[in-house]
């Protein structure tokens, strides 16, 4: 037996993991934990039993990782994010433990297929898109690179909605991923904290004569922790994802219930549970805005209380907080943490304001994910002050400190003072959470080289002048375990057979593949893997949508959140123009192409939902028109999530990364596609710029205006109507859309979308159309030269190793967190 040196409590020996032992353990869990005879067990029973057996093997390493961190006194990283798009965990955990074949053999000996039961695991509905998936990749990479870390978020009961398409329209339904429980998680009843809202602030004199403030909330809820272990590659470290759920202080008002007010008796319970019910409740109403702010403060406060409790328990002092704790804010959602940490340090632990500010600033760092001013959260001051009165006082104190310093020490003028102020006075007074996160952090990082430079010039220009050493770049990355080894096992096997196993631990070793890019035999093997992945996707689409696809056609894929700046509309308009050309010129040798879309639109985002409807209306017409002879098909795949992405990404021939230049912070879908051998068509936006530098200009198709050109055109004004009228293909395509060719039941359905292009074209769809269409025809030409296409695709895989999230995390650890 192993011994715990702290108190001599023996630890059990680590469990064996040969197939026979695993099989016996699975049957034991099936019998005694699930209560099923193996002969009567259903696939979901086998799934749960297998997860429990794998979880036991993880726990040994989890506890060892925790002990190692405690005994070494190492610095812990705390990653605060409103989203963690972790997807299915079983295959991820089994692969990282190195037990894939053992588990497969164990289940096979019981007459069970691993792939079938693994596909039954629900996707954890804890995120929306790139932000949440990045957080998930980072959690896995922190464990892989041996960084002691906790992720903090909310345990959403429903999370982001489940998307259905009804008559071409998006319909939002609740995602019931927790309906049958979550075998991965552990409730931590001892890690429960009160979180307050509203009320009053009272002051009193402390023994030292200074004023002390006491917040007396009018409402209180209990935050209860649920922990999920996150396994790093080869299982060397297991970190913790801690998600909060909300419980009322009093679950039921019994007097009201007994008096017959059955609904009112549960009012407090319902109010508390709403905090962890849905990710991103619609904020078009004041009630929706208030719920979002409550959610953000709820998880931030619980997380910070937990962090300080753990720190004080080990060190019994706050003086070394920045030396032992690094708190990373993932976007502005947890920005209220700046004020909450100040409150806890000052009001609970009795620190002086200036001392607390120094500790706060040295402990917190902030990742910015957007250059869109409207995406940098702001809150109406009256709402914030009503919900968090003490925090508003603290924020005013911080603001005064910063503005006085800027005026006195930096000589800032009135315009600069207005720009850096935490309070926007230009209309109804609003609290700027981006400014709060910036001012309260010692490091502010962008997520691509271009994005970071644009931050300095645009949204944070004056704050950058005030603090010129704070902004730095950490280009995003993806975990190669999920986005190559697990989602594309065929390619992984081919790579291992060709260049060896070094890339499994260091993805930059993929560069050895460059030597095989022009090798005819390797090209055939590479193409065979791609075709197999395309056949798999075609089968999924046929089973879900009843649409048959030809795997020999080019699979042209755009999958991401539906937003006007991501320009799915540009892609659809080009599809309409291509459809017109194919019908008008049947004598031409057209490349067979299948345009595949997937993504969700925010429930209150009218234009994004209209774009989904347009994609489906165009698909209905194009796919049923014999005139195109099956050379063009358009597909919108519903309910995009991590598991669907794992099927779509390996099947892509062409990766659409066509956002308006200067508006995409980084993107990570571009990296996933490139790693799996897709060629990118895209603008010089986000990480596309660095991808071009790594893969080579000849292996990526760049088109359109640069970020500087977009800025100049917007400043000087442009005439989109003239652009459209001078582009015959564009004008014809827009006329067809606006006149009801694709919406005969409602000819005016898409008039507003088209009018937006004629009137202002803010996202440069019309301005970039001709360049995009020309680039697509150049892509066609490359496709017809199979050897050239395969060589470029192989070089994309070979040269994408730098875009690993392991590299990103090592940069965070060395340059921001000073950890590891």
Automatic annotation (TrEMBL):
Could you confirm whether the keyword Glycoprotein appears in this record? no
Q: Which Gene3D superfamilies does UniProt cross-reference here?
A: Glycogen Phosphorylase B
InterPro entries named in the record: Glycg_phsphrylas (IPR011833), Glyco_trans_35 (IPR000811), Pyridoxal_P_attach_site (IPR035090)
| Organism for this UniProt entry | Rhizobium alvei
Protein name per its UniProtKB record: Alpha-1,4 glucan phosphorylase
- UniProt superkingdom: Bacteria
Keyword tags: Carbohydrate metabolism, Glycosyltransferase, Pyridoxal phosphate, Transferase
Does this UniProt record's set of keywords contain Transferase? yes
Please name the CDD domains in this protein's record. Answer: GT35_Glycogen_Phosphorylase (cd04300)
Task: Tell me the GO molecular function terms.
Answer: 1,4-alpha-oligoglucan phosphorylase activity
The protein's matches in Pfam families, at most eight in alphabetical order, are given as: Phosphorylase
**Role, per record:** Phosphorylase is an important allosteric enzyme in carbohydrate metabolism. Enzymes from different sources differ in their regulatory mechanisms and in their natural substrates. However, all known phosphorylases share catalytic and structural properties. Allosteric enzyme that catalyzes the rate-limiting step in glycogen catabolism, the phosphorolytic cleavage of glycogen to produce glucose-1-phosphate, and plays a central role in maintaining cellular and organismal glucose homeostasis.
Catalytic activity line of the entry? [(1->4)-alpha-D-glucosyl](n) + phosphate = [(1->4)-alpha-D-glucosyl](n-1) + alpha-D-glucose 1-phosphate
Which Enzyme Commission number(s) are listed? 2.4.1.1
- Lineage summary: Bacteria, Pseudomonadati, Pseudomonadota, Alphaproteobacteria, Hyphomicrobiales
Family in the record:
Belongs to the glycogen phosphorylase family.
List, separated by semicolons, the cofactors it needs. pyridoxal 5'-phosphate
